[in-house]
């Protein structure tokens, strides 16, 4: 284990102690403190249990010019967060007009195929960044939402520490997750609970050269919720400095490759593809270690696997077998 | 004095008291008028500006009643049924109206009567200010000249020749011969002026379904006062709506400034609304977002809140149903955002039954579609199947330079936005034929490919046109981006 693991574990414990009220009752169930497992054990650990609702999470692209992976990852987080309630919660996507021109407009059928429910999306187009922030704050106050995806373009001056702080406060008060997607951004203020830097990752090979499920190279460069910060020297890799090949999987510090499973609305570690059927198919009992990756093994809730379990009968084992062989 | 050009000659169109006392009258040529009084101040007529001024006055007059109609190019017609008591009776109301108009520099006369024709005839040809009690219409107009019937000049001349100068003269005559000589129109005019026949009039704006208003003895201008007034107006309006079992879909707030300026603010809601706090919130959003803020000037002396459009809304039930609550909260959010950013900027997706990518999902204003949470995006997820449609679609497909096998192989490499991508994985083609049944479609067949480059970026590209059949040089486009 790297040296960083110990302070991590300590801070996760501190977090849990802090969550226990003076009367001994756990406050973990208030929505703003609830942690949502992302499905990859290493990532959940680095987060101190999972991604917190009611926090501001910043997602930027690892490389300038290509924002699609970052936007895919942000949408995957949105899907994860809206799905975790059991049914899918409505969500809001506020984007600056320029971002739509540059990176493409949201596409209903694509969102549906990605595991998001377009029928529950309210989409706001804002002319400039201050409108984006205003609409986002309005949305974050609406507790019925599962997540608010905030997409200003570039490094607008209005997006300063005060502005992010306002978003954080609104998110904490309502328990709605704020996902701040930063296409075209170079620098940015602090204030967010987590900061992710996302780049493209080759999808898992399918038979016949086909394109596989969405995959991302993800670096968690800050996580306040688990006390991890880029300044603590535990994370040597700044954004965009991946070794070209081979990608390092599921190792802290260098980041992870995370595969998104639209159907189950959960992330997976592509190296452990065999864990995919562990949860829903009790017949195929896997060793506990492999199982842990899918079920989290943390205070996080695990609704994603439950959602998967419902749909499991339609998933033929033969087919799964072929895929795994490939 | 104002002149206008008719058939090449300047003719007097309007004149003030002093000029008419000097002996000038309407219809004179300018040279005749100058001969009578060389020192006349003359202005060119500007009908467009006159019309604008009348519209402004009509806006102002809405402080008395929402029903304001235009009467000709220089008159206003108000239906004051039910609103006169707010001013202490009809006479007081008319007096207030004329006083304010004169103070603003207008020469005005007015009349209140039970029939439109009577009031018009009296205002234009009778006393300066008169209120006719119900039933006295015929008597009130008896002494008026026949010009008050607004007949054509020829008809007036012909009647004068017969010695018929006043309305009473016509009213006493047997109707048969008059109708035979001058047409039935004359008789109906006489009846209307005498209050015996109704005359249809229409207001300038559609009448609101219900209104609430506040009049302030002292004009208010402080933001806090205005907010409180909006809330109490909303309370009044909601009480009316509640009685009717309706909710408002479109609300208008009208500010009447003490100096006569009028400002209207309209908000629309996505569902019937009957909650005073909610209404006040919507107006607050809208007022905050105005590019051109409402200027209180010396203060507002009247504020009116009107429901322009209402819809049936049954008594609110406080449900335990989480879904209904969510839908309600979401509708409220959509209303708020729409009030601030405009209804067209707040959207929802509606699935469309078509395979053509650009048309497969339609973004519509969230308010219009309502926020029912059960739209069907059915062919969504095949287990373990990677998404076949991109997350983001470029609003215009962008041309790319592609190296691909002929006739229908996938791209081997391509250049998009000046960056070269080497394709490692590709899936396709998915052949989509244009919808020929839509008129004016000269689109070509598209072969779509999902491709992944060496870094793992995933794109949706297509080749336009079938090689050899539709085109000899198919073009390639990048249409969407996968996550």
What attributes characterize this protein structure?
heterodimer, A: 326 residues, Rossmann fold, 10-stranded mixed sheet, 31% helix, B: 483 residues, alpha+beta, MutS, DNA mismatch repair protein, domain I, Dna Ligase, domain 1, 4 domains, 4-stranded antiparallel sheet, 13 helices, 30% helix, elongated, P-loop_NTPase (chain A), ImuA (chain A), Protein ImuA (chain A)
Description:
Chain A: InterPro entries: ImuA, P-loop_NTPase. The complex is a heterodimer of chains A (326) and B (483). Chain A is α/β, with parallel strands linked by helices. In chain A, the strands form 2 sheets. In chain A, strands 3, 4, 6, 7, 8, 9, 10, 11, 12 and 13 form a 10-stranded mixed β-sheet that branches. A two-stranded antiparallel sheet of chain A has the order 1-2. Chain A has a single domain, classed as Rossmann fold (3-Layer(aba) Sandwich). Chain A is built from 10 helices and 13 strands. Chain A starts with a helix and ends with a helix. In chain A, helix 7 links the parallel strand 7 and strand 8. In chain A, helix 6 packs parallel to helix 7. With 483 residues, chain B is an alpha+beta fold. Chain B folds into 4 domains: 44 residues, MutS, DNA mismatch repair protein, domain I (3-Layer(aba) Sandwich), CATH 3.40.1170; 138 residues, no CATH class; 127 residues, DNA polymerase, Y-family, little finger domain (Dna Ligase, domain 1); 90 residues, no CATH class. In chain B, the strands form 6 sheets. Chain B has a 6-stranded antiparallel beta barrel with strand order 14-15-16-17-18-19. Chain B has a 4-stranded antiparallel β-sheet with strand order 8-11-9-10, with helices on both faces. Chain B has a 3-stranded mixed β-sheet with strand order 2-1-3, covered by helices on one side. In chain B, helix 9 crosses helix 10, helix 11 crosses helix 12 and helix 12 packs parallel to helix 13. The radius of gyration of chain B is 34 Å and the shape is elongated. Chains A and B meet through helix 3, helix 4, strand 5, helix 5 and strand 6 of A and helix 13, strand 12, strand 14, strand 16 and strand 17 of B.
